[in-house]
Amino acid sequence: GIQGIVDAYHQILSQIRLYGPTDFSPVINHVASYVRSGVEITNWMLSHVFQQYFILLIITDGEITDLDQIRQVTVNASKLPMSIIFVSVGEADF
């Protein structure tokens, strides 16, 4: 579950170096494009068997530099079958 994800984050944290800028809008755009292509295929097939729902989980230390772009791509993706969840870890201002 979520605790396993957080535990894995803490375990790998000692092996990597976090740095900025941190831009999440390209990641959200990429996932939204992937979801959008799946929606188009499903609509084309007119079948509910292949419908999927996607959850994008972003774990961040709070140092986000593209908040305005994140707002825009989130609005653009709001009609898609997906959720975007941000989890802030660390002491930075989120």
UniProtKB/TrEMBL annotation:
- Show where the Copine C-terminal domain sits: 1-94
GO annotations of cellular component type: plasma membrane
Q: Which organism is it from?
A: Sitta europaea (Eurasian nuthatch)
State the Pfam families in the record: Copine (PF07002)
Report what the protein is called: CPNE3 protein
One GO biological process term is:
cellular response to calcium ion
Superkingdom, natural source:
Eukaryota
Lineage of the organism: Eukaryota, Metazoa, Chordata, Craniata, Vertebrata
| Single annotated GO MF | calcium-dependent phospholipid binding
Q: Which SUPFAM superfamilies match?
A: vWA-like
Q: Which InterPro entries match?
A: Copine, Copine_C, vWFA_dom_sf
- In the UniProt record, the gene name given for this protein reads Cpne3_0
